[in-house]
User: What shape does this take?
Amino acid sequence: MTANAPAAPVVSLTGFSAEYRTRLGVTRALDGIDLDVARGELLAIVGESGSGKSTVSQAIGRMLPRVCHVTSGSVHVLGRDIASLAPDAIRALRRESLGFIPQDPIASLNPTMRIRRQLELALRPLGRPTDLESLTELLASVKILEPDRVLRLYPHEVSGGMAQRIAIALTMAREPEILIADEPTASLDAQVRDEILTLIVDLVQRSGASLIWISHDLGAVRRWCDRIVVMHQGRIVEEGPAAQVLDEPRADYTRTLVAAIPGRQDPTTKEAE
Amino acid sequence: MMQILRWSAGRVMSALITLLGVSVLIFVAIRLMPGSYEDIILGPLASAEERQLLAEAYGLDQPIFVQYFAWIGQVLTGELGTSYVTQSSVSGEMLERIPVTATLTIMAMAVTLLAGVPLGIWTGVRSGAKQGGAVGRVVSSIGISVPEFVLGSIVIFVFSQFSLGLKVGGFASIGTGFWPTFQALLLPALVLSVFCVAATARTTRDAVMGVLVEPHITAAVARGETAGHIVRHHVLRNAGIPILTLLGTITAYLLGGAVIIETLFNLPGLGSFMVTGLGRRDFAVVQATVLFAAAVFVVLSLVLDLITSALDPRVAVTGKAGS
Ligand SMILES: Nc1ncnc2c1ncn2[C@@H]1O[C@H](COP(=O)(O)OP(=O)(O)OP(=O)(O)O)[C@@H](O)[C@H]1O
Ligand SMILES: [Mg+2]
Assistant: This one.
């Protein structure tokens, strides 16, 4: 599908290595990562806890914590080497091209402000309309049922699913070309998970953005994504079309990962979902 | 709304109970101090009859709870009694002295806020960088560990040895106009504020650092917002809550510190009034000044609490700010 697209990748990591240096010692988090993400591609990154998935996602926005040091390689976003960008330029890139969907949506909102005020504060610097009608419309676009009531609430008064819709609205209002979602449903009930994923994928497909989605949910990944990257101990051990990687895993690690999914013990079973 | 009303009513109730507790404590404590009023006034050689007469004159021979209710009754009608020693009206004397202490503490509070908060924000925002951390640590450890009578003595020594433009102990000019009063109180206020500046800077720094690692700040950074925008809208407001809480403690500290500073700099304020009263076992004076200080403190904390609950929507509901 997108493998033979002629366009240049929107995100590209080349020989990227990084390590966390803390008082407790040095942890090698990423070890020579090579990864290209095509325009409009829905890419999943899977792998066990600690394999370096979040570090990859943070590296794309130059959002690595201070203790994390890049030891080699580079990250290009829309053709630009982000390590060389001035603070202003990296902010402009985050603002205009990147969209991060948070892991804990309620915590991603300022607890001391009503939703409406937060939306205003985030949208005004972008020159977007912040009148009541536009904000109501924005919330309606992420399928929030009573937008005018929700605008008056504080973050602690909304549910996790609702907060995630608000966070998604905040992100999508900027029409990012690259959307990065690090376990966007980790803190949500199983029942809302599907709704949120459907919403994200729907918005991504409509806007033509690329999605980099970090997930532990292989079933959902298989259903939504074009391509899967499997990470293990800071390396990419396997990548390819979603169905192929999950149904005919080549790497030993992928096989154990797939075997761990309940009801999918036999990787050759190809049940419909 | 109902919840906020109920919460406010609860706070007012607990403020009244606090004041009641303070009144009982001070009333009993001062009577438990070694050396009674009669001893101090009449000296050790007085006869039993003389002592008896004096005690009767002031009602000190009555059971303590009778004395207490008589006093509270007076206080509730706005009457603070007369000094046992000078026979002058306590409230009259206090009215003359309150402006001195009020100006002193307000000036010290202003210095605390104007110096401590910006210093804390700066060191907090820069906490990752090396300079900010070092400055914050040095300022706060010196400020917090040096008692103000040490600092005050040094300041008095330096400024009285070398005429540096500011007068020491120039209380003659107090009340003769804004500028002379300001000049006379500037040094005492600065000395009084040192601890509070350090404590405020430290609390502010910790609060700012605490807010900076919250996910909603990361989210704002990820949206590409500028540092100025984030600090203004998301850091200051949220870090303001612990700072407001600290202001209550600082007020208490300033009121207590004023006692030492006024004595040290020889200022005619409430603090020195109380200390003199204490030395002479002048019950009426001590009771009135302590109760007044407690009332000021209680009212101020009440106001601070109301502001905090306006700043943090979670306060009114849970009774305390979320972390
Ligand atoms: N702030 C940090 N300080 C020190 N080490 C860290 C830090 N963040 C991550 N690490 C280490 O870096 C490695 C990769 O972490 P990362 O968060 O990228 O993993 P992950 O794949 O996202 O895991 P999870 O599925 O649990 O989110 C891990 O070994 C982790 O312990
Ligand atoms: Mg992670």
Summary: DSSP finds ten helices and ten strands in chain A. The radius of gyration of chain A is 19 Å. Chain A touches chain B at residues 61, 63, 66, 91-96, 98, 100, 102-104, 107-113, 121-122, 125, 154, 156, 167, 170-171, 174 (CB under 8 Å). The first strand of chain A starts at residue 11 and ends at 22.
